[in-house]
Amino acid sequence: MADAAKEAGVRALVGEVLYDFPSPNYGPIEKGLEYTATLIERWQGDALIRVAVEPHALYTCSPQVLARCRDLAETQGVPLGIHLSENKSEVEEISKKYGRRPVAHLMSWGCYLPI
User: Fold this and answer.
1) Which of 60, 70, 86, 101 could form an SS bridge with 56, CB 3.0 to 4.6 Å?
2) For the chain, what are the domain ranges?
3) What's the pLDDT score for residue 115?
4) What DSSP string describes the chain?
5) What does pTM read for this prediction?
6) Alpha carbon distance 42, 46 (integer Å)
7) Cβ(59)–Cβ(21) under 8 Å?
8) How far apart are CA 43 and CA 109, in angstroms?
9) Residues 97-112: pLDDT tens digits?
C-alpha cells in the first residue's frame, strides 16, 4: 500500500495490523513487531508515507502486546493506531474483562490519546 500511495503521489499512514495470535502475513507477534520496525525504518523521513504501529483492538491484543506496541511507537516516534470502542459489545467485554472501559484500559497501559 505504501508503494502504491507513493507512486500515486498521495500521503498515507500505513502499518501492519498486530494481534495476539499468528497472522497469515507475518506469523507470531514477534515477527509482526519486527516487520513493523522494518516498515518504519524503510519509510523514515519520507515526505508522503508514515508508518504507524497498529495493534488491532483491545479484544485481540493482550495488555502485554499493547505495551510492546506502545514501546515500539514511542521509541520510533511514530503514531499508534488502534480500533477502540467500536461497538457496545466491545465496551462491555473490555469492562468485564479488565474492570474499566476501553479508553481507561488503553490509558492504563501508557497509551495516551492526543487531544
Assistant:
1) 60
2) 2-83
3) 43
4) -HHHHHHHT--EEE--EE-SS-BTTTBSHHHHHHHHHHHHHHHTT-SSEEE-BEE-BTTTS-HHHHHHHHHHHHHHT--B--B---SHHHHHHHHHHHSS-HHHHHHHTT-PPP-
5) 0.88
6) 9
7) no
8) 27
9) 999 999 998 888 777 6
pLDDT digits (tens, 9 = 90+) for 50-93: 999 999 999 999 989 999 999 999 999 999 999 999 999 999 99
Q: Which three cell numbers stand for residue 9?
A: 503521489
Residue type, 36: T
Give the residue carrying C-alpha cell 495490523: 17
